Amino acid sequence: MRFLVPLLTTLLPVLYALATAAYARTYAREGSAKDRLGPITLRLAVLLHLVYLSVRGVLEGHLPLASVYDFLSATGFSMAVVYLYVEAREGIRTTGIFVIPFIFLIQIVSSAYGGKTPPDPIALRPIWFELHTLTAVLGYSAFAVSAIYGILFLLLYREIRANHFSHFFRRMPPLEALGQMNIRAAGGGLALLTLAIVLGVGWLKRSGAGSLTDPMVWLTILVWCVFAFSLLAYHRFGWRGPRAIYMSLVGFTTLLLSRVAVDLFFHSFHSFR
Amino acid sequence: MTSKAGQATLDFLCVGLNHETSPLEVRDALVMNEAEVERAIHVLRHRAGAEEALILSTCNRTEVYARGASVTDLPLFVNDLLREIKGMDLGARGHRLYAYREPDSVRHLFRVACGLNSQVLGEPQIAGQVKDAITLAARSGGSGPVTERLLDAALRCAKRARTETGIGRGPVSSVYAGVSLASKVLGHLADKRVLLVGSGEMAGLAMIHLMDAGVAQFTVAARNRERASALASRTGARVVTLEAIPVVLPGADIVVCATSAPGTIIGEPALRAAMRIRKNRPLLLLDLAVPRDIDPAAGRLPNVFLHDLDALAGIVAQSLDQRRAEVPGVEAIIEDEMLRFMRWHRSLELKPTVTEFRAQFERIAQEELERHRGRFRPEDLPALQALTRGIVQKLLHRPTTRLNRAGEDGGTGIRRIDAVRELFGIEREEDPDEDRDPR
Question: CB-based contact (8 Å) between B250 and chain A?
């Protein structure tokens, strides 16, 4: 089983590259919205990615999330899962080209530099912690997909209002659908992040391995607040269009900055250093 | 020239006029109703000696297709026919009919069916009109095995063109472009509410396209109450006056303005107020009026999508460009279908059919003899061969005689040859797709 790890480490970026090419073809060619090559390649990549993560999990005795490269690989995997879910739900394949290249980049970085797993700095075995990290990764991926759809919404919104009907205009799904994809993915991300926070706090209280004053804890709560407000504004205050999208993008930017800040400027037990 | 079954020539002619060769008043004057088409087919069959005839008469074209006509100058005959039936002498007016002989006549029919010869490139209605022409020809006794096969091929060609290329893709009218834009902004339109401002032809057209897109909830606002009620009656829509627009505006998701009013009907303040009430839900405004009915400043409000005729014309132009780019693909399909049709037609040649038919039986007899050779004494074999040959000759005598007469039996003869080839699988290896149902 051990031989699978280097094999899949090499194979996964190749498969994501092929999926990127297939989705690029779907986007480029008019009338190719029902092309099945992209979804088939991506599903194969996701399946093998799952095998890769499972094999790593079995060999290492815990979820393969001990380094920043493991984290990237898991994020890429869950982004692909979230994307496939959204694609299946909305029946739209022309947006894949705006999501899959990110997964490819994430995986190629992970495959290129993540060959060695560093010594495990924290106890990863308790199920609370494993679930905490798993839900956090899934939540972050949902936010990333939401942000991509948010940006696509803004681009299409501007094209339509400016009466500029380019290839992008023709290949994109309805504006309403992009808005829905953005808000649904953000909603899913918020639910997962909520779960991650609850599990994380529960684990902290039980293990005493860290503190609730950890920068990552309060920065994550800040991210949660921004997304919660974004969804509240959409559902309760009737925020629609660019204003709602900008709000969700603020949430995602906060998430990215908090992750960078924790790794670079703060001393946190969440840091991968 | 007479075309008989068994001859290689198709003898299929097309004579007519269309929007490229004749002005609208001429085309209008030559549109034939069903009774006139039936009469024309009767004349073509009995006076021009056509074995099969078909007439395609629409607002953009009047075309006569005939197979095996015996008159030497079919265009002149058709000219006289149109004068007799429609009372218009094209020659005297200086209008000329175009005439095509196969393979150009076949190619022309396929191009027409695919919409390549239409005023709006790739429009789909023409395929339906071709289908109606076949039905009418069948009812009038004009259709026969060749035209039936030909029109099946033409319709298959049209279907392939629509599914395999983008010749029918994209909106090609301003109103339809507006409806496409509404779908692009709002997604599914079935649950959307539409406010139609105006009750003229453009508003009616918009209503039809929106209904086709699934819209069911309409409000009509117009100055002319009577005309508005007539328009509203198509969908059970509510009718309001122009003064009531600010009241109904917040409830609409799509507003289509198509009045002939000299000034603005919907101002920016009214729209700003409406957007506040509708909590900024997106609102699509289609201004199809000249001069414009909606204040252009409204287009700057968030979540308001305002598009006038110029913007929609841009979408139409793009669609037409894309359709033009698809023409070579359609031409390739036409050539492919022409090849198939011509191959089928060539297979109707009598002599090879008879030869192959007989050879097939003789081959089977010979194969059976070889298979059972070991069961007989060598000295019995010549007698056995003579016996089987005799049986085959007797079995084939009557079918061969009837087949040889097919050349003199016109359409019935062609059907007979076609049936023999079909039943005995002659040339099946060369043309494996021949059985495919075109529709």
Answer: no
